[in-house]
């Protein structure tokens, strides 16, 4: 029996997500449905968290993508589950207005979200978190801006011709972070460190 167009698209999305996991040490997921319509995604890129007025680093971020009946005309519903300090993410909400278009894959959306966390991508003019936008605006005018927080490429796994993965270089050290307010002491790194997430389902 032939697959319906929506099921074909969902099946392609699942294949693309599996390819992304093979190409990135930063992305893992658990899929739900056959073909999947929900993904629980874990990112292990470095981003910022705020504890009162002090900023720290976190390398563990979780969110859920739900592909509703209006997908792909409308983007997947994103529910952000972990603390983060970013102009365009205010858990549980994420602003995808500058990111999503119907031809984009869910895997590429995950790459874009990872780059948001890394502060490679941001919009300070229409923020969800105005405090993060003010902090970023000040730091972008500094002589030595602290962004991106994590310069590592999301697709960071290189492969030999025989498809055996090469050893990945160690990630660069995190930046020295200014505090959320100019007169506060420097932030100390968050203690969460780099953590793995749940494995994908076959």
What does this 3D model show about the protein?
This protein is of the alpha+beta class and 202 residues long. It has 3 helices and 8 strands. The protein has helices at residues 5-23, 106-117, 130-140, and strands at 27-33, 36-43, 47-51, 54-58, 61-66, 77-80, 89-90, 93-94. It has a 4-stranded antiparallel β-sheet. The longest helix has 19 residues, at 5-23. It is elongated and about 60 Å long. It starts with a helix and ends in a 62-residue tail after the last helix.
The low-confidence runs, each spanning 5 or more residues with pLDDT under 50, are 160-169, 182-202
Main sheet properties? 4 strands, antiparallel
Average pLDDT across residues? 84
Global Rg:
18 Å
Count of discrete alpha- or pi-helical segments spanning 4 or more residues: 3
Record the strand order, biggest sheet: 1-2-5-6
Termini, distance in Å?
23 Å
* SSE-based structural type: alpha+beta
- Silhouette: elongated
Order of helices and strands: HEEEEEEEEHH
Query: Roughly what percent helix?
Result: 10-25%
- SS strand fraction: 15-25%
Number of strands: 8
Question: How would you summarize the topology of this molecule?
Answer:
Elements: H1 5-23, E1 27-33, E2 36-43, E3 47-51, E4 54-58, E5 61-66, E6 77-80, E7 89-90, E8 93-94, H2 106-117, H3 130-140
Antiparallel strand pairs: 1-2, 2-5, 3-4, 5-6, 7-8
Concise description?
This protein is 21% helix and 19% strand. The chain has 202 residues and is of the alpha+beta class.
Descriptive tags:
202 residues; 3 helices; alpha+beta; single chain; 4-stranded antiparallel sheet; 21% helix
């Amino acid at each position: 029996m032939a697959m319906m167009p929506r099921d074909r698209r969902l099946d392609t999305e699942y294949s693309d997500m599996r390819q992304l996991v093979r190409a990135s040490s930063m992305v893992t997921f658990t899929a739900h449905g056959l073909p999947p319509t929900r993904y629980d995604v874990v990112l292990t890129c470095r981003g910022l968290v705020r504890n009162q007025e002090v900023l720290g680093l976190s390398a563990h971020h979780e969110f859920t993508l739900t592909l509703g009946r209006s997908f792909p005309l409308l983007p997947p519903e994103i529910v952000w589950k972990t603390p983060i300090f970013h102009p365009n993410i205010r858990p549980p909400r994420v602003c995808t207005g500058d990111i999503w278009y119907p031809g984009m894959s869910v895997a590429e959306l995950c790459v874009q979200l990872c780059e948001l966390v890394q502060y490679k991508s941001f919009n300070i003019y229409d923020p969800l978190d105005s405090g993060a936008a003010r902090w970023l605006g000040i730091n972008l005018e500094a002589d030595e801006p602290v962004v991106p927080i994590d310069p590592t490429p999301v697709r960071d796994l290189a492969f030999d011709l025989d498809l055996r993965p090469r050893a990945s270089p160690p990630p660069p050290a995190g930046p020295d972070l200014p505090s959320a307010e100019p007169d506060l002491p420097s932030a100390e790194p968050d203690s969460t460190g780099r953590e793995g997430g749940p494995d994908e389902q076959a």
